[in-house]
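Researcher: First entry.
Model:
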Amino acid sequence: MDPRYKEVIKYGVAFAVLLLAFFGGSYILKGFLGTEYPMMVVVSESMVPTLGVGDYIIVAQIPDVNSMPAAPQPDGEIIVFLRPGSSDEYIVHRAIRKLGDGGTVSFVTKGDNNAFPDGTPVPASNIMGKVIGHVPLVGYFSLFIKTTRGFGLVLAFMALAFFIDYILPPKRHVGGRFPVLSLVPLAVAPLVAASFWLIPNSGTHLGLESLALGVWYLACLLTPLAFHDDDSGVMLWLYHLVLIMVPIAADMVWWTNHITPSMWWVSRGSTVPINWLLIQEQPAFDTVFNSVLRSLIPGVVIFVVVLYAKRKGWEPFASLQRRLRGAPPEPPPTVPEAPAQEPASPAVAPDSTDEPTPPNSQGL
């Protein structure tokens, strides 16, 4: 088999495993946490700042609903429940008061960001579980690829990474060592996302995400130059793009345009399960998709252009790559020497004795 096809298959399998980890992990957790939907994504701002928009939430079974704490923030349990009278509308709110006794127990619920409690008490039988943890921001990835255009964009990024060797010139190998510090720009965006555990949703988020986006452009410049193995650099860049930068770009739309994922499609509820279903977008998603494109396409162009220039050996990219890796400068091209010419034989002067004597040479 052609080695290039083997690489495509290898990276395709790696990305499929990654997707299965996101979506299949939910099924694996069912047995451990005892809930139908152990992983869900927050799609509205009703629980801000306790739970941010785009957060993954981990939902575990409640052994005894009757003993579940119900009190105003911050003491009441945060629960996921099926809204009374609905079969597919899932809500994540806080239980603030318990009503009734025994088998007729129900709970008054309220979003931490809502001014008033929910209108209908929630029967204990509608409660799916309690929130035991959350992962900030990255839930946007699973929401984005639930849309047709979002899924298509991620597929396009994957295709670019898998077939880039067919598009660009052949690889050029440069010596030296891998500059570990070149990974720092790639680490900024994950650190920003992780900081949201410590900094609840606030006005600082947009500034931090804008910083992460700007530094990512720098990473798109440095990553192609830092890696000796282009395949490793491309795959690291691809995972970073779809898993971190897509969520950051989508969250920036919420802060700038106040469009939450609950507006991306016809949806009710404040949280949705992780599944493979594609959902028809609403007009509000046009703004989200176009904004994500405007944020990410410049970085994609920078990455591809720099990788092309490196492979072509264009300056100043070739020199920058050698400096980054500490590689010796390229030797000047050797000019083939011209073959040595044999010295010309000196002309032999004619012998005067051989010259014919002109007539009347005796003066006669």
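Researcher: Second entry.
Model:
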Amino acid sequence: MRAVGLITEYNPFHNGHLHHLRQSLRQSDAEVAVAVMSGHFLQRGEPALVDKWQRTAMALAAGVDVVIELPFAYACQSAPVFARGAVQCLQGVGGVAALCFGSEAGDLSALSACAGFLRQQQATLAEGTARQLRRGMHYAEARAALVARLSGSSRLTDLLRKPNNILAIEYLGALTDLAGTIRPLTIPRIGAGHHDKEAVGHIASATGIRQRLAAGQAVEAYLPVASASLLQRAQKQRLMASAELLHRQVLGQIFRGRDALRNIVQVEEGLDRRLFDAALESCDWTDLVERVKARQLTRTRVQRILCYVLNDLRPWQLRACLDDGPRYLHLLGCSDRGRRFLAASRKQRSLPLVGNFSRIYAILKRFYGPGSRALEQALTQLELDLRATRNYSLLLPGRAGGNRHRDFFAEVLRGASVES
């Protein structure tokens, strides 16, 4: 069975995602769509609007066949780390022939040329970008300016100013570095831009949809019917992540003190004081981020650091997860066709595939061997993923109760295959 990979957040699953799914299947001539989807905390350092199981249900209803969770250590990271982890997950599944991603350019040759140039100039760009960051320039701007100077090409510079292009280029770099057999494909992004607040026809960005929801405005026109229904139910049951509860939980972590903050990933000298002082005065999540943000700290980076603070992420834990890639695949949901694909590709799989976590310790021990470095890495990945689920549960105002270790009890969601 031919399979195409998708790298997603589905926050929430909207009409643009449906277009991407259908075009990916068509362009790759695939029968099966395999999505690697971020869990409860996302690339820009924000909690997901609704939990990973509800977003999986949206994806399955729209026609995605397999949904695999991107581990927390990769999901809440800069574009290169995010892309590499997601590609490694797709390789680990086995049997995925292509990766199809959206881009503003919609031109694979141009994106590949840019990825190749960045690879050739990696050391020079790293040194020059770091120097510009110390002067207060944002990362994307600094890199684009350096590429313009080194290449003399305005085309390459323009590519690096668009968020989906940036991710696309990182996917291409990861595919090259990891030297697998997955071939890249791209489709042009249609309608509203990645961060646009205004809709174009029936296409609105996920950012725009979330802002409309927060303002009490209707969003049904921009979502497939199943997504709209699931969001309406979540909103009615108060099972959407609350910015107010997020602010309170993060403050609680910050108020453990500056010594504790200095143990957190990316909390460099001086930032511990800045975080603590901002927490003393902030009135909400947005205000906290604004107070911490500085010339050399973008809003996105601040939000990621605050997510690390919330989840008590230590440098040694992150290194253990990133050194050799994801150590297991968490299967969140699959269709009938997805189940057949997973059965057929079993011998090509290089990572253990786990449904609910009721037997995960035994599975990992058997796969990697007791006392092995790989097993320790897998257990660290597991602890961080469990921690993210526990902490996310604290952000849901309407949560009725039950064990917060939901990963141990939630069954793999089942969806009927949608025929194209």
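Model: Note on the second entry: The first helix runs from residue 15 to 28.
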